[in-house]
Amino acid sequence: MNLALVGLVAGMALGFAGYFGGFAAFLLVAVLGAVGFVVGRLLEGDLDLGDLGDLLRSRDRRR
Question: What is the number of H-type helices and E-type strands within the chain?
Answer without folding.
Answer: 3, 0
